[in-house]
Amino acid sequence: MRVKSTPTSRGFEAKAISGTHTVLLALNCPEALRKGLKGFAFEREMVGAGSKGPKFLRSQKVFKSVVPDPKNAHDPNDPSKPAAFYTDKFPVQSFLWGDYGAAPGTTYRFRPEGEQRYLVFETPGLITIPKRYRNEHGQLMEHAPYYHRDIHPPSELRTHRERGEFIVKVRVRDGYQTYVIDYHPFDVVGWDGYVYPWTFSIRDFEPITGRIHMPPPSHQTFAGPNFVICSFCPRKLDFDPEAIPIPYHHSNLQSEEMIYYVDGNFSSRKGIELGSITLHPSGLPHGPQPGLAEKSLGLTETHEYAVMCDTFHPLRLTSLAADLDDGKYMYSWAEDVASSNGRTPDEDPAGITSHL
């Protein structure tokens, strides 16, 4: 079985689960984007010899307003054959869909469209699983927020045997070292030990919740030299009857706090939208913006995704970061500043429960 997940910048995610004869496609669509959505269309392309280019997949549902009697419809080019309907004209309307036309030994390419966005961490050492999640043998324990089966190694090895001049740039300290080799850098026959690429989906992270507010370490996903990476995912909120289900004001005296807003409705988090990045330097008090603590009373769950990186050495901003700064976020705690969608926090409680 092969599993591959591809998110898009528009908030959709398609996950393909491949068996011997079947490819199951699972779609995830944030609730905020479902309004007015008619359905989905899929193209499939066979890779390699015999490819005839991309082709829309067959539709499992036909709109009777367009074709009143689909069972008795015939192919316009050959009346002796039943009509075939495809997803470009009759889109998929459910969020799970199976492609039962996969042939053994055949590679297919499912192509997402649109701009892609990535958050990349360049680290001075290995990114590891936190020690408290592992036993003495390195196995993940039952209280960990994910399982070893959630970590996916390469599903296949593609060996490149080309000869020629290939340039490889290696990150060394504060610069780059350039190597020129006479063979393709992927001329390999296998992966050795644990030195191989792997993936872990934030959607496989199981949040830890409690009777009162859980601090950021409960969201920790990975650890590295002088930094941690945390995942804020959809979850139930604090369930004590008198709990305020929102982070308290605080100062990080020994860490810099960077948050990337991945998915969800952040409309009432003033100055924040999908793809925003915020930075709270060490020692700077921060927390809920005016009105959010009161509005959070009674909320029971949140549906946001965000990635936080806390560093224990100061972050030095680049000139590019300075150019991207809108200069407004620092003023978003002022009570007279309306949210980006024109509504105040008291009118729209969504997006208030991420760590601030």
Descriptors for this entry?
356 residues; mainly beta; Jelly Rolls; 3 domains; five-stranded antiparallel β-sheet; four-stranded antiparallel β-sheet; 18 strands; 26% strand
Architecture blueprint of SSEs:
Elements: E1 2-7, E2 13-18, E3 23-28, E4 43-47, E5 55-56, E6 74-75, E7 78-82, E8 96-99, E9 107-109, E10 163-172, E11 175-183, E12 220-224, E13 227-232, E14 235-236, E15 256-263, E16 277-280, H1 292-296, E17 301-302, E18 305-311, H2 319-324
Antiparallel strand pairs: 1-2, 2-3, 3-8, 4-5, 4-9, 6-7, 10-11, 12-13, 13-18, 14-17, 15-16, 15-18
Describe the model:
The structure is a single chain. The chain is built from 2 helices and 18 strands. It is mainly β and 356 residues long. About 7% of the residues have low confidence. A hairpin with a 7-residue loop joins strand 4 and strand 5. The protein starts with a strand and ends in a 32-residue tail after the last helix. The chain has 3 domains: 108 residues, no CATH class; 194 residues, Jelly Rolls (Sandwich), CATH 2.60.120; 39 residues, no CATH class. It has a 5-stranded antiparallel sheet with strand order 12-13-18-15-16, with no helix packed on it. Strands 1-2-3-8 form a 4-stranded antiparallel sheet, with no helix packed on it.
CATH top level assignment of the largest domain = Mainly Beta
The 3D shape can be described as globular
Question: What series of H and E elements makes up the topology?
Answer: EEEEEEEEEEEEEEEEHEEH
Average pLDDT, all residues? 77
CATH superfamily placement of the largest domain = Jelly Rolls
Terminal-residue CA separation: 39 Å
Global structural class: mainly beta
What is the number of helices?
Answer: 2
Which bin fits the share of residues in helices? under 10%
Strand order of the largest sheet: 12-13-18-15-16
**Total strand count, please?**
18
What name does the CATH topology of the largest domain carry? Jelly Rolls
- Main beta-sheet strand count, sense and barrel state: 5 strands, antiparallel
Strand content: 25-35%
Q: Regions with pLDDT < 50 over 5+ consecutive residues?
A: 94-102, 337-353
- Write down the domain tally: 3
* CA gyration radius, whole angstroms: 25 Å
